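Input record (Table S2, row 262):
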Amino acid sequence: MSETLKGYTALITGGSSGLGFEMAKALLGQGATVIIAARGGERLENALKTLGETGDAHAVAMDVRDAASVEAAAEWFRGRFPRPDMLVCCAGIGGNAPGMEVLPPDHAFWEIPAEAVRAVLDTNLLGFFLVSRSFVPLMARGGSLVYVSTSDATLTRPGQLPYGPSKAGAEAMAAILAQELKPGGIAVNVVCPGGFTDTAMAPPGLKERMLSDGLPVLPPTVLNETILWLASGAAAGLTGEKLVGKDFRQWLEKRKEGEPSR
Ligand SMILES: NC(=O)c1ccc[n+]([C@@H]2O[C@H](COP(=O)([O-])OP(=O)(O)OC[C@H]3O[C@@H](n4cnc5c(N)ncnc54)[C@H](OP(=O)(O)O)[C@@H]3O)[C@@H](O)[C@H]2O)c1
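Output record (NAP complex):
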Protein backbone atom coordinates (compact mmCIF):
# COMPACT_ATOMS: atom_id res chain seq x y z
CA MET A 1 0.00 0.00 0.00
CA SER A 2 1.24 3.50 -0.85
CA GLU A 3 1.44 5.85 2.14
CA THR A 4 1.10 9.22 0.40
CA LEU A 5 -2.02 10.09 2.44
CA LYS A 6 -0.88 8.72 5.81
CA GLY A 7 -2.23 10.97 8.58
CA TYR A 8 -4.93 12.34 6.26
CA THR A 9 -8.55 11.88 7.42
CA ALA A 10 -11.52 11.87 5.04
CA LEU A 11 -15.20 11.47 5.82
CA ILE A 12 -17.43 10.34 2.95
CA THR A 13 -21.21 10.39 3.21
CA GLY A 14 -22.80 7.76 1.00
CA GLY A 15 -19.68 5.65 1.51
CA SER A 16 -21.64 2.40 1.81
CA SER A 17 -22.17 2.06 -1.95
CA GLY A 18 -21.29 3.14 -5.48
CA LEU A 19 -19.12 6.20 -6.05
CA GLY A 20 -18.65 6.94 -2.32
CA PHE A 21 -17.53 3.38 -1.60
CA GLU A 22 -15.01 3.42 -4.46
CA MET A 23 -13.61 6.83 -3.45
CA ALA A 24 -13.21 5.48 0.10
CA LYS A 25 -11.31 2.47 -1.24
CA ALA A 26 -9.03 4.70 -3.34
CA LEU A 27 -8.20 7.00 -0.40
CA LEU A 28 -7.58 4.01 1.89
CA GLY A 29 -5.24 2.59 -0.75
CA GLN A 30 -3.07 5.69 -0.34
CA GLY A 31 -2.91 5.29 3.45
CA ALA A 32 -5.66 7.74 4.48
CA THR A 33 -7.95 7.19 7.43
CA VAL A 34 -11.45 7.03 5.97
CA ILE A 35 -14.80 7.25 7.72
CA ILE A 36 -17.78 6.16 5.64
CA ALA A 37 -21.24 7.37 6.62
CA ALA A 38 -24.66 6.12 5.52
CA ARG A 39 -28.00 5.35 7.11
CA GLY A 40 -26.64 2.23 8.79
CA GLY A 41 -27.55 -1.44 8.77
CA GLU A 42 -26.18 -4.28 6.72
CA ARG A 43 -25.05 -2.24 3.70
CA LEU A 44 -22.85 0.00 5.85
CA GLU A 45 -21.55 -2.94 7.90
CA ASN A 46 -20.64 -4.94 4.79
CA ALA A 47 -18.95 -1.93 3.20
CA LEU A 48 -16.86 -1.37 6.34
CA LYS A 49 -15.90 -5.04 6.43
CA THR A 50 -14.64 -4.89 2.84
CA LEU A 51 -12.91 -1.52 3.22
CA GLY A 52 -11.32 -2.62 6.52
CA GLU A 53 -9.28 -5.13 4.48
CA THR A 54 -7.81 -2.21 2.50
CA GLY A 55 -6.78 0.14 5.31
CA ASP A 56 -7.80 2.27 8.29
CA ALA A 57 -11.56 2.35 7.66
CA HIS A 58 -14.32 3.39 10.07
CA ALA A 59 -18.07 3.77 9.75
CA VAL A 60 -20.71 5.92 11.35
CA ALA A 61 -24.48 5.75 10.93
CA MET A 62 -25.86 9.11 9.85
CA ASP A 63 -29.09 10.03 8.10
CA VAL A 64 -28.14 13.20 6.24
CA ARG A 65 -31.80 14.37 6.24
CA ASP A 66 -31.87 14.49 10.02
CA ALA A 67 -30.03 17.32 11.82
CA ALA A 68 -29.89 15.40 15.12
CA SER A 69 -28.45 12.31 13.42
CA VAL A 70 -25.80 14.39 11.62
CA GLU A 71 -24.87 16.24 14.81
CA ALA A 72 -24.60 12.94 16.73
CA ALA A 73 -22.22 11.64 14.04
CA ALA A 74 -20.13 14.82 14.31
CA GLU A 75 -19.97 14.33 18.08
CA TRP A 76 -18.86 10.71 17.53
CA PHE A 77 -16.19 11.96 15.09
CA ARG A 78 -14.94 14.64 17.50
CA GLY A 79 -14.27 12.02 20.17
CA ARG A 80 -12.15 9.86 17.86
CA PHE A 81 -10.29 11.88 15.24
CA PRO A 82 -8.28 15.12 15.38
CA ARG A 83 -10.11 16.76 12.44
CA PRO A 84 -11.43 15.98 8.96
CA ASP A 85 -8.97 16.98 6.22
CA MET A 86 -11.56 16.18 3.59
CA LEU A 87 -15.35 15.99 3.73
CA VAL A 88 -17.05 14.41 0.72
CA CYS A 89 -20.82 14.93 0.51
CA CYS A 90 -21.80 12.05 -1.74
CA ALA A 91 -24.97 10.59 -0.17
CA GLY A 92 -27.74 11.07 -2.68
CA ILE A 93 -30.89 9.70 -4.24
CA GLY A 94 -32.59 10.28 -7.60
CA GLY A 95 -34.72 7.94 -9.67
CA ASN A 96 -34.62 5.54 -6.71
CA ALA A 97 -36.44 8.04 -4.42
CA PRO A 98 -39.65 6.70 -2.91
CA GLY A 99 -42.46 7.25 -5.42
CA MET A 100 -40.13 7.87 -8.41
CA GLU A 101 -39.59 4.23 -9.31
CA VAL A 102 -43.25 3.66 -10.24
CA LEU A 103 -43.41 6.57 -12.72
CA PRO A 104 -43.03 5.80 -16.44
CA PRO A 105 -39.86 7.22 -18.05
CA ASP A 106 -41.97 9.75 -20.04
CA HIS A 107 -44.05 10.98 -17.05
CA ALA A 108 -45.35 14.56 -16.84
CA PHE A 109 -43.84 16.64 -14.04
CA TRP A 110 -47.24 16.94 -12.30
CA GLU A 111 -47.26 13.17 -11.78
CA ILE A 112 -44.26 13.36 -9.44
CA PRO A 113 -45.42 12.85 -5.85
CA ALA A 114 -44.57 15.70 -3.45
CA GLU A 115 -43.01 13.08 -1.14
CA ALA A 116 -40.49 12.18 -3.84
CA VAL A 117 -39.54 15.85 -4.34
CA ARG A 118 -39.20 16.30 -0.59
CA ALA A 119 -37.07 13.15 -0.23
CA VAL A 120 -34.69 14.18 -3.03
CA LEU A 121 -34.31 17.77 -1.80
CA ASP A 122 -33.93 16.62 1.82
CA THR A 123 -31.14 14.21 0.88
CA ASN A 124 -29.30 16.02 -1.91
CA LEU A 125 -29.64 19.66 -0.80
CA LEU A 126 -30.63 19.90 2.88
CA GLY A 127 -28.40 16.86 3.52
CA PHE A 128 -25.33 18.58 2.05
CA PHE A 129 -26.14 21.66 4.14
CA LEU A 130 -26.57 19.73 7.41
CA VAL A 131 -23.39 17.69 6.92
CA SER A 132 -21.37 20.78 5.96
CA ARG A 133 -22.79 22.71 8.93
CA SER A 134 -21.79 20.03 11.45
CA PHE A 135 -18.41 18.96 10.03
CA VAL A 136 -16.82 22.04 8.42
CA PRO A 137 -16.35 23.76 11.82
CA LEU A 138 -14.17 20.76 12.80
CA MET A 139 -11.73 21.63 9.97
CA ALA A 140 -9.86 24.00 12.22
CA ARG A 141 -6.73 24.31 10.05
CA GLY A 142 -8.26 24.32 6.61
CA GLY A 143 -9.43 21.40 4.52
CA SER A 144 -11.26 20.24 1.44
CA LEU A 145 -15.03 20.14 1.09
CA VAL A 146 -16.25 18.19 -1.94
CA TYR A 147 -19.82 18.03 -3.23
CA VAL A 148 -20.75 15.18 -5.56
CA SER A 149 -23.07 16.52 -8.25
CA THR A 150 -24.05 15.68 -11.79
CA SER A 151 -23.23 16.84 -15.33
CA ASP A 152 -24.20 20.42 -16.25
CA ALA A 153 -26.77 19.10 -18.76
CA THR A 154 -28.56 17.01 -16.11
CA LEU A 155 -29.14 20.06 -13.90
CA THR A 156 -31.80 21.38 -16.29
CA ARG A 157 -32.56 18.56 -18.75
CA PRO A 158 -36.26 17.66 -19.29
CA GLY A 159 -37.23 14.69 -17.14
CA GLN A 160 -34.72 15.58 -14.40
CA LEU A 161 -37.18 16.89 -11.81
CA PRO A 162 -36.54 16.87 -8.90
CA TYR A 163 -32.96 15.50 -9.16
CA GLY A 164 -31.57 18.23 -11.43
CA PRO A 165 -32.72 21.15 -9.25
CA SER A 166 -31.49 19.39 -6.09
CA LYS A 167 -27.99 19.21 -7.58
CA ALA A 168 -28.21 22.74 -9.03
CA GLY A 169 -28.99 23.93 -5.50
CA ALA A 170 -26.05 21.98 -4.09
CA GLU A 171 -23.74 23.51 -6.72
CA ALA A 172 -24.98 27.00 -5.86
CA MET A 173 -24.30 26.25 -2.20
CA ALA A 174 -20.79 25.07 -3.09
CA ALA A 175 -20.16 28.35 -4.98
CA ILE A 176 -21.29 30.37 -1.97
CA LEU A 177 -19.25 28.31 0.49
CA ALA A 178 -16.15 28.48 -1.73
CA GLN A 179 -16.18 32.25 -1.22
CA GLU A 180 -17.19 32.23 2.44
CA LEU A 181 -14.67 29.56 3.49
CA LYS A 182 -11.70 30.74 1.41
CA PRO A 183 -10.29 33.02 4.14
CA GLY A 184 -10.25 30.02 6.52
CA GLY A 185 -8.26 27.93 4.04
CA ILE A 186 -11.12 25.55 3.22
CA ALA A 187 -11.43 24.65 -0.46
CA VAL A 188 -14.89 23.84 -1.81
CA ASN A 189 -15.13 21.99 -5.11
CA VAL A 190 -17.78 20.05 -7.00
CA VAL A 191 -17.13 16.73 -8.72
CA CYS A 192 -19.34 14.69 -11.02
CA PRO A 193 -18.82 11.49 -13.01
CA GLY A 194 -19.70 12.97 -16.42
CA GLY A 195 -22.43 10.54 -17.39
CA PHE A 196 -24.54 7.62 -16.30
CA THR A 197 -22.60 5.55 -13.78
CA ASP A 198 -23.20 1.93 -12.90
CA THR A 199 -24.33 2.09 -9.25
CA ALA A 200 -27.29 1.08 -7.08
CA MET A 201 -28.94 4.45 -7.81
CA ALA A 202 -29.96 3.47 -11.34
CA PRO A 203 -33.59 2.40 -11.76
CA PRO A 204 -33.96 -1.27 -12.80
CA GLY A 205 -33.30 -1.87 -16.49
CA LEU A 206 -31.72 1.53 -17.22
CA LYS A 207 -28.17 0.21 -17.53
CA GLU A 208 -29.34 -2.47 -19.98
CA ARG A 209 -31.26 0.13 -22.03
CA MET A 210 -28.19 2.41 -22.11
CA LEU A 211 -25.94 -0.41 -23.28
CA SER A 212 -28.38 -1.62 -25.93
CA ASP A 213 -28.68 1.97 -27.23
CA GLY A 214 -24.87 2.13 -27.46
CA LEU A 215 -24.70 4.83 -24.75
CA PRO A 216 -21.72 4.97 -22.38
CA VAL A 217 -21.96 3.48 -18.90
CA LEU A 218 -19.23 4.72 -16.57
CA PRO A 219 -17.71 2.54 -13.81
CA PRO A 220 -18.26 3.55 -10.14
CA THR A 221 -14.49 4.15 -9.89
CA VAL A 222 -14.83 7.15 -12.28
CA LEU A 223 -14.20 9.73 -9.52
CA ASN A 224 -11.21 7.99 -7.91
CA GLU A 225 -8.41 9.85 -9.72
CA THR A 226 -10.17 13.16 -9.14
CA ILE A 227 -10.63 12.60 -5.42
CA LEU A 228 -7.03 11.40 -4.95
CA TRP A 229 -5.79 14.53 -6.72
CA LEU A 230 -8.05 16.77 -4.59
CA ALA A 231 -6.63 15.11 -1.47
CA SER A 232 -3.06 15.69 -2.66
CA GLY A 233 -0.95 18.80 -2.23
CA ALA A 234 -1.26 19.41 -6.00
CA ALA A 235 -4.81 20.73 -5.48
CA ALA A 236 -3.71 23.44 -3.02
CA GLY A 237 -5.40 26.73 -3.84
CA LEU A 238 -8.08 25.26 -6.11
CA THR A 239 -11.56 26.26 -4.97
CA GLY A 240 -14.94 26.96 -6.58
CA GLU A 241 -14.18 24.50 -9.41
CA LYS A 242 -16.28 21.72 -10.95
CA LEU A 243 -14.31 18.65 -12.01
CA VAL A 244 -15.72 15.97 -14.28
CA GLY A 245 -14.36 12.51 -13.44
CA LYS A 246 -14.41 11.10 -16.96
CA ASP A 247 -12.57 14.19 -18.32
CA PHE A 248 -10.23 14.68 -15.36
CA ARG A 249 -6.99 13.72 -17.15
CA GLN A 250 -7.61 16.21 -19.99
CA TRP A 251 -8.52 18.89 -17.44
CA LEU A 252 -5.29 18.24 -15.57
CA GLU A 253 -3.23 18.36 -18.78
CA LYS A 254 -4.76 21.74 -19.68
CA ARG A 255 -4.10 23.01 -16.17
CA LYS A 256 -0.45 21.96 -16.43
CA GLU A 257 -0.21 23.77 -19.77
CA GLY A 258 -1.70 26.86 -18.11
CA GLU A 259 -4.82 26.91 -20.28
CA PRO A 260 -8.16 28.01 -18.82
CA SER A 261 -9.75 24.86 -17.35
CA ARG A 262 -13.43 25.33 -18.36
N1 LIG B 1 -24.90 6.92 -10.59
C1 LIG B 1 -24.90 7.97 -11.40
O1 LIG B 1 -25.13 7.86 -12.61
C2 LIG B 1 -24.57 9.34 -10.84
C3 LIG B 1 -24.28 10.36 -11.76
C4 LIG B 1 -23.98 11.65 -11.28
C5 LIG B 1 -23.96 11.86 -9.90
N2 LIG B 1 -24.25 10.85 -9.03
C6 LIG B 1 -24.22 11.16 -7.60
O2 LIG B 1 -23.30 10.31 -6.93
C7 LIG B 1 -23.66 10.21 -5.55
C8 LIG B 1 -23.55 8.77 -5.12
O3 LIG B 1 -24.55 8.01 -5.79
P1 LIG B 1 -24.27 6.56 -6.39
O4 LIG B 1 -24.52 6.63 -7.85
O5 LIG B 1 -22.98 6.03 -5.88
O6 LIG B 1 -25.53 5.76 -5.77
P2 LIG B 1 -25.64 4.64 -4.65
O7 LIG B 1 -24.76 3.48 -4.96
O8 LIG B 1 -27.11 4.41 -4.53
O9 LIG B 1 -25.09 5.36 -3.34
C9 LIG B 1 -25.84 6.31 -2.65
C10 LIG B 1 -25.29 6.44 -1.25
O10 LIG B 1 -26.02 7.44 -0.54
C11 LIG B 1 -26.37 6.92 0.73
N3 LIG B 1 -27.58 7.57 1.21
C12 LIG B 1 -28.77 7.72 0.57
N4 LIG B 1 -29.64 8.37 1.36
C13 LIG B 1 -28.98 8.67 2.50
C14 LIG B 1 -29.34 9.35 3.69
N5 LIG B 1 -30.58 9.86 3.88
N6 LIG B 1 -28.41 9.47 4.67
C15 LIG B 1 -27.17 8.96 4.50
N7 LIG B 1 -26.78 8.30 3.41
C16 LIG B 1 -27.68 8.16 2.42
C17 LIG B 1 -26.55 5.42 0.50
O11 LIG B 1 -26.36 4.71 1.70
P3 LIG B 1 -27.48 3.86 2.49
O12 LIG B 1 -28.56 3.51 1.50
O13 LIG B 1 -26.68 2.68 2.94
O14 LIG B 1 -27.94 4.75 3.57
C18 LIG B 1 -25.39 5.15 -0.45
O15 LIG B 1 -24.20 4.97 0.27
C19 LIG B 1 -25.06 10.81 -5.43
O16 LIG B 1 -24.97 12.10 -4.85
C20 LIG B 1 -25.53 10.91 -6.87
O17 LIG B 1 -26.44 11.96 -7.07
C21 LIG B 1 -24.54 9.60 -9.48
